[in-house]
From TrEMBL:
Organism of derivation: Leptocylindrus danicus
Transmembrane region(s): 55-76
Phylogenetic classification of the source organism: Eukaryota, Sar, Stramenopiles, Ochrophyta, Bacillariophyta
GO cellular component annotations of the record: membrane
InterPro entries the UniProt entry points to: Glycosyltransferase_domain, GlycoTrfase_DXD_sugar-bd_CS
Tagged with keyword Membrane: yes
Protein name: Nucleotide-diphospho-sugar transferase domain-containing protein
Entry keywords, A to Z: Membrane, Transferase, Transmembrane, Transmembrane helix
A Gene Ontology BP annotation from the UniProt entry: mannosyl-inositol phosphorylceramide biosynthetic process
Top-level taxon of the source organism: Eukaryota
A GO MF term: mannosyltransferase activity
Amino acid sequence: MTNKSQMLRQRAPLPNKAARQSGSGISSPLPLHSTDLHDDESRGKKYSELSRNHTMFLFIQLLIAFTILFLVLASMSRGRFLDNDSFHNNPLQQQEVNGPAYRQHEHIIPRVAYFTYSYNILNTTVFRELPEDEVLANNVRNTIALHPGTEFHFLTDDDCLAAIRKVVDMDKSSKLRKLEDYFLREDRGMIKADVCRGAALFLSGGLYFDVDLQLRMNVWDMIKHDTEFVVPLVHKDHKVKGAF
């Protein structure tokens, strides 16, 4: 019995080093189970998915921000004649047309038309200085309605001045350089309108209508497709015969 006990004690495995040191506060490493690995893998996938979602969310936000910025800058640039050589400052600009007859512009004269006044009488946010401005505004709207498919622009004094300056810069003529000062000194609206429309039509072509000109039909229907210049004459009872 004693011999067998001694043999069993001799055959008993000795504790490993980590186990012998457990009494000193150092524990043996815990074995890894398959469930732990599965949990770590799941957490990694969730973190990766959250990261992708967060990145996509930031990308969409940036895309929206750049889109809004582009639209704001585009809207600010509309109507700035010196920046883009356009007169896009008319809030009632006509959209595409009624019927196939106007869908293809066949005239040599560009299908563009202009009004001019000291300020934009079509803009209801601007204080109308004179009672008749409402009547003039309605007349302008009637002219626009008679010309579907035509791009209308309303030039204020500031827009006119910008057009005049551009013409002067293009020509470099000493006589034309006086045109800006003349426009600034002139008080009569009809004279300022004559100067303004000359500059605008020189730069882009098209038609010009006085705000008090009452039209009864579409002017394009009376203009031949190969006509390069057209001007109305005064009626037969006008005090200045043959004027236009």
